[in-house]
Design goal:
This protein has helices at 2-22, 35-44, 50-63, 67-71, 75-81, 88-105, 114-117, 125-136, 146-154, 163-173, 182-192, 205-209. The protein has 220 residues and is an all-alpha fold.
């Protein structure tokens, strides 16, 4: 067990070193102009591509900018406006409720702590830490989405499938100073270099670090 942990730490270190070189300034590809718009975009992005979210928000964010705008939205109208994203009914309900809570309880400002964020409707560990990192450059955790999950499993950095448990496993392997490079780095790598469908990736940079990954294609 000790040897396996040491191997994982060493493997994670080499992977992060590559991600830092390849993506030195981690930044989301979600479009937004206000802090709350980012929060909304991240909430919309669950099980939906950033590209699709950006298509929806291109029009949406011209109408809704501040929490108050979203808080006053009609559920029927808003859910229709975001109907092209997955789980749009639940997302509409959560976004409006979160907007109302932030408007009333936080003076219209997006909270600056995980504790406060995860108390908002529809916001869990992943969303909270994406928002904290992107808005405030506070990387107090590693957000795990489908890209991070599949690479963590492919490179045997975890045996868990629960997103928050994967985050905790990665945080135990990787120094906190490097947490900011993991999510965005693996998202971009997974989106543009090594996509989810099984293929020969022996020449891909991360696979060269651990060739065994070329034979591992867990479902994310």
């Amino acid at each position: 067990m000790v040897g396996r942990t040491k191997n994982r730490i060493a493997r994670a270190k080499r992977m992060v070193a590559y991600l830092k070189r390849a993506y030195p300034e981690p930044k989301t590809e979600l479009n937004f102009k206000t802090p709350f718009q980012l929060l909304v975009a991240v909430m919309l992005s669950a099980q939906t591509t950033d590209k699709q979210v950006n298509t929806v928000t291109e029009t949406l964010f011209k109408k809704y900018k501040k929490p108050k705008d979203f808080a006053q939205a009609s559920y029927a109208v808003f859910s229709k406006e975001i109907s092209s994203v997955s789980f749009f009914r639940n997302k509409a309900k959560h976004i409006i409720a979160t907007a109302q809570k932030i408007h009333v309880e936080h003076g219209g400002k997006v909270p600056m702590s995980e504790k406060e964020l995860v108390q908002l409707p529809g916001i869990a560990y992943k969303t909270a830490h994406v928002v904290l990192g992107e808005l405030y450059d506070m990387w107090e955790g590693i957000p795990t989405d489908t890209h991070v999950k599949r690479f963590a499993l492919r490179f045997e950095l975890t045996k868990n499938t629960d997103l928050t448990k994967i985050s905790k496993d990665l945080e135990a392997l990787i120094p906190k100073k490097d947490w900011k490079y993991v999510n965005n780095g693996l998202v971009l790598y997974g989106r543009y270099v090594c996509k989810a469908h099984p293929h020969d990736c022996t020449e891909h940079p991360l696979t060269k670090i651990w060739p065994k990954a070329n034979t591992r294609w867990p479902k994310a």
